[in-house]
Design a protein that fits this description.
This is SnoaL-like domain-containing protein. By secondary structure, the chain is of the alpha+beta class. It has two domains: about 160 residues, Roll (Nuclear Transport Factor 2, Chain: A); about 90 residues, Roll (Nuclear Transport Factor 2, Chain: A), CATH 3.10.450.50. Helices cover about 40% and strands about 35% of the residues. The chain is built from eight helices and twelve strands. Strands 2-1-6-5-4-3 form a six-stranded mixed β-sheet.
Length: about 270
């Protein structure tokens, strides 16, 4: 088990390496069997060779800054609430993308902390429609052509098609379902909550697995913000008095029923 400081330093090392364009340091942050899902919903990148291609596609050509709002350390996972600001190399385009990043951290071959899985939760379609083309048609097309060309060179047609999967997901209907669940939670309406959750769906609050009744006793008068849907998941920030949490709702089979709920809050 790693300390809070060790876990945070591992997560924070990624943007340092990205800003410095230090490919070898960035790759060394990951376990040998690591996976990167960025954005969640696209086809993942698994193993050192795939991660190197990911770096060459999305990091190497660009100037990237991480503006972090809040970090949560829960068990051996770090969850970051942030905006990534990217100036796309060779173009006039700069975009700021709101997202959450989850770093699942394990012991590497030398016993040092390494990232086993990285999940970046952000919305691809709104980024394309609201930001890429909001700065003018010529600027947007230039950036889109640059990204597409580099992706095809580095990852081939299969990789480009895998990335495009992120255009499809549970979307607005799952966001509504998640917010209905939270409204029912605030009202203590467990019967309504059960209608929105699949039978035997796991409910995890930090290191506790809870029934819906027990969840109601632990969480009340909650607020939420920054709701993001990507792939089959909806992620949002929860506030309970001064405590801040991040909730991940899974929708494995339907956008109207929750198949799992994981709530991350500080435990370290």
């Amino acid at each position: 088990m790693f300390s809070r400081a060790e876990l945070l330093d591992t997560a924070q090392a990624s943007p340092r390496a990205v800003a410095a364009h230090d490919k070898s340091t960035w790759l060394n942050l990951f376990a040998d069997d690591a996976e990167v899902h960025d954005p969640v919903g696209s086809r993942g990148h698994a193993g050192p060779a795939a991660l190197a291609r990911f770096y060459d596609t999305f990091i190497a050509p660009n100037q990237i800054r991480f503006d972090v709002d809040h970090d949560i350390v829960c068990g051996q996972t770090v969850v970051r609430d942030l905006v990534i600001v990217t100036h796309m190399g060779g173009t006039a385009l700069t975009v700021g993308v709101p997202l959450y990043i989850r770093y699942e951290i394990v012991a590497g071959s030398a016993g040092r902390p390494r990232v086993r899985r990285l999940y970046a939760h952000w919305e691809l379609l709104p980024m394309m429609t609201r930001q890429v083309f909001s700065q003018g048609l010529r600027t947007g097309l230039s950036a889109l052509l640059a990204l597409s060309g580099n992706m095809l060179r580095q990852q081939g047609l299969s990789g480009a098609l895998g990335f495009s999967r992120a255009f499809v997901g549970v979307g607005a209907s799952a966001k509504r379902c998640a917010e209905q669940f939270l409204n029912a939670l605030n009202a203590g309406q467990t019967a309504h909550m059960r209608q929105l959750v699949e039978t035997n769906a796991p409910i995890q609050l930090a290191d506790q697995t809870l029934a819906l009744d027990a969840l109601c006793t632990q969480l009340s008068d909650i607020r939420w913000s920054k709701v993001i849907a990507g792939g089959r998941q909806v992620v949002l920030t929860l506030f309970q008095q001064e405590q801040r949490m991040v909730a991940v709702f899974d929708f494995a089979h339907s956008s109207s029923q929750i198949s799992a709920l994981t709530i991350y809050r500080d435990t370290a």
